[in-house]
Amino acid sequence: MTNSSDKIHQQLLQLATQAQKNAHAPYSNFKVGAAILDENNQQHASCNVENAAYPLGQCAEAGAISAMISSGNTQIKQILIVSPNDNFCPPCGGCRQKIAEFANDQTQVHLAKSNGEVKSVHFKDLLPLAFGFDKNEST
Ligand code: THU
């Protein structure tokens, strides 16, 4: 039986997988897709876009964040990252900081393998003690 959260996972997975197909990854041959559910229940997807000048490449999560922000939405309720193989593709350190900018204590991160297996974690467990101007403890 499916409930509404399963349905959201499926939609995010479908959207991320579609974007993943368009990834530009000729250097790593590692195609990643990401999809975000925002605070208004709109969904945004992207893929990694590499560059011959390697450091200029952009991760899939960064593209999905750009799509969310340019659509006028600002909060990541859920983000799903689909890997190109049978390992999970957890967000890299840089992407964790980028996600932190628009995440909150409820933000969920879904990691999907290429076979559709999904593992879900809370974002706060992926980046404890994250840097942020409003997140510093005073003690
Ligand atoms: N990549 C992502 O798109 N997201 C991640 O969280 C990890 C890595 C991309 C960057 C690069 O294009 C390729 O995967 C190999 O590192």
TrEMBL record:
Residues 7-134 form the CMP/dCMP-type deaminase domain. It is an enzyme of class 3 (hydrolase). PROSITE patterns: CYT_DCMP_DEAMINASES_1, CYT_DCMP_DEAMINASES_2. CDD domains: cytidine_deaminase (cd01283). GO terms for molecular function: cytidine deaminase activity. It comes from the Bacteria. Its EC number is 3.5.4.5. It catalyses: cytidine + H2O + H(+) = uridine + NH4(+); 2'-deoxycytidine + H2O + H(+) = 2'-deoxyuridine + NH4(+). Its cofactor is Zn(2+). Keywords: Hydrolase, Metal-binding, Zinc. PANTHER family: CYTIDINE DEAMINASE. Belongs to the cytidine and deoxycytidylate deaminase family. This enzyme scavenges exogenous and endogenous cytidine and 2'-deoxycytidine for UMP synthesis. This is Cytidine deaminase. It comes from Paraglaciecola algarum. The lineage of its organism: Bacteria, Pseudomonadati, Pseudomonadota, Gammaproteobacteria, Alteromonadales.
